[in-house]
Amino acid sequence: MLYKYDKKALKEEITELNSTGFTQITNYDQKRETLEILFSASKTGCQIYFYMDISPKNNNFQKKNSKVIKQGSFDQGKLNELISNFSEVYIPEHHKKLKDFFVELKNYLESNLDKASNNANNYSKELMQICHGLENSTNIFFITLAIHCFVILIKILVGQFGYSGEGDKPKFGDFEAQRHWMELTIYLPVKEWYTNSEINSIEYWPLDYPPMSGYHSYILGKILNKFIPASVEIEKSHGYESPMFKMVMRFFALISDVVTFHLGVNLFCWYIFIYLKRSKNRKPSYLLYYIVLLLVLINPLMIIIDHGHFQYNNVMHGFFVLALFFLYTENYILAIIFYSFCINFKQMGLYYAIPFPLYVLKKLFFNNSKKNNNNSLLSLIYVALYGIVTLITNIIIYLPWLKSKRINDVFNRIFPVRRGIFEDKVATFWCTLNIFFKLNNHFRTNVLIKLALIMTIFGCLIPIYAMLKCEKITKRICTQCFFIVSLSFYLFSFHVHEKTIIVPFVAFLLNLPHMKNILPSFTLIGMFSLFPLLKRENQITPYYLTSILFYLICKTTLKLIDISRTGKNKTDEEIKYKQNENLFFYLLEIIIFIIMIFYHFVDYTIPPPEKYPWFYPMLNAAFCFCYFFCIFLYSNYDLMKMVFKEKHSKSEKIKYD
């Protein structure tokens, strides 16, 4: 926005500007030949800074900055858009004085901004009324209950379709595996759960998850043995699929999910968005609490794997979220116990292992050294105590096998080295690399294990650096580290299943709303990576329906977050960056939709080449890996930005929200 003016009449113009009541000269530097003007339109509630270069060389006038001073009155982006439109139609040569320019700008904004901001005002007022209603204690209970009931209903509906191995003789699938484990655990002594025998053969769904899964199967098996004994009759119940039994098994998955995962997510969201803010004398974010709670619980990846495909992954995730809740509330003993439950329910819980001790150690030594330089000994005592708690918890879990000296049987089962670096086509580095370079033809299994370990640790270096480098680790940084580390394990570790993408996904969801722009596309690609598996198991209908439902809910709720933050002061650069970022991810979602639609069309209409029957799943895995790897790089970049912000602004704490 340029304005040519008469330098000789500058003093007169300054006097006229100061007399308008809506413009003020804030700085007149004769040496540097600069002039700064503050334009304030009280009716529209905005301030705009203008900068004049009065040197003979340039002799121009331009907008320096603009901001909203009346909170919630209108959208900042709309203000900048109107100013840009005005600068395009305004002809400086027709107005010889600066006063004319500002009078016309004032009239233009007052006549246009009020009209343009009516909708924004209505949104803001309605949103404020809604938020006020959300703060009522009775409403909080019923809205939270409604969210849980809605999610439970979706899970029940998904359970009406097929499951893993339905009618697929002779081994069936994961549904039969879970049933068979209930059969084995109630029939065999505990010490023989992992020992190979004629009954407990590695050829027919051996128990290959840690003992907490075994104890869980034992409890459910006892219930089945009482009410449907034929479903767990030793060796005679293989492939048992009565309608009542299917309903009971679905109920087991649902109640296990609600008791662990629903509870953990509810506590975590309440602590982050309500309790933590109250403790800091800040206004609780009830809207964020409801939105994040809904988006985490209704995410289709967790729903379709546990309640469609059929597994109990959300029990492990529930233990992890509860451990994270206790970790952030500094109840470290409970955090250790629940995290021990997590990794001993499913070994994939180890994907979260690195940030957990680093956070505890950093909190202990930093906080104590901050309070008292002589408290290092106290920190060491606490570390020893937590180490003892970890040891005792795991000894209790593994006690039957320690007493019978069969602990090696357990580890041989839960770490299936014999099954190779990957099994089905999965969106990992090794499976994608194998398309061009056949790994098994060039490396032995023990070498591949070492390579996978090196690559996985290498992928965790930035989170490790961040947690060690930050003077004080914030919850946001820690949650981001959990996500990156678990994603590194998924991308680079040894023998990963396609279903394992849900492990990093849980950590990703807990970091909302900071990663909200990625959520729609990440969920779509996550579901897309599961498509070959779900196609084999009659889960295509819920695959489409849950993906579309989540996408619509996601876009609506994320828009509510944006509306609730309308009116907050931001610089022009921040607004422009945000707009560009939103546009980029919107275009990315469109591209992903086009690719998915094209893939599904080709997959259903054109058979794969006879020589390459796995061509389509392989293509799916390679594409999804590329996306996941880009998310991995972006997350590391975002983490480093937070680290350097914390490093250079130690007095300004990085907030979780």
Q: Kindly state the mean pLDDT as a whole number?
A: 84
**Sheet/helix structural class:** mainly alpha
Please write the string of helix (H) and strand (E) elements.
HEEEEHHHHHHHHHHHHHHHHHHHHHHH
Estimate the strand proportion: under 5%
Major sheet: order of its strands? 1-2-3-4
Number of helices: 24
Number of separate strands? 4
Helix content: 55-70%
- Compute the gyration radius: what is it? 30 Å
Are there runs of 5+ residues with pLDDT below 50, and where? 116-121, 649-657
Description:
The protein is mainly α and about 650 residues long. It is about 65% helix and about 5% strand. The protein has 24 helices and four strands. Strand 3 (about 45-55) and strand 4 (about 60-70) form a beta hairpin. The longest helix has about 35 residues, at about 245-280. The two termini are about 35 Å apart.
Which descriptors would you attach to this protein?
657 residues; disordered C terminus; single chain; 24 helices; elongated; mainly alpha; 4-stranded antiparallel β-sheet
Write the layout of secondary structure elements.
Blueprint: H1 10-18, E1 23-29, E2 34-41, E3 46-53, E4 60-68, H2 76-89, H3 98-116, H4 118-134, H5 137-158, H6 174-187, H7 211-227, H8 243-279, H9 286-297, H10 300-310, H11 313-328, H12 332-343, H13 355-371, H14 376-403, H15 407-414, H16 429-436, H17 445-459, H18 461-469, H19 475-492, H20 502-509, H21 519-536, H22 540-564, H23 572-605, H24 615-648
Antiparallel strand pairs: 1-2, 2-3, 3-4
Helix pairs in contact: 2-3, 5-8, 5-9, 5-10, 6-7, 8-9, 8-11, 9-22, 11-12, 12-14, 13-14, 13-18, 16-24, 17-19, 18-19, 18-24, 19-20, 19-24, 21-22, 21-23, 21-24
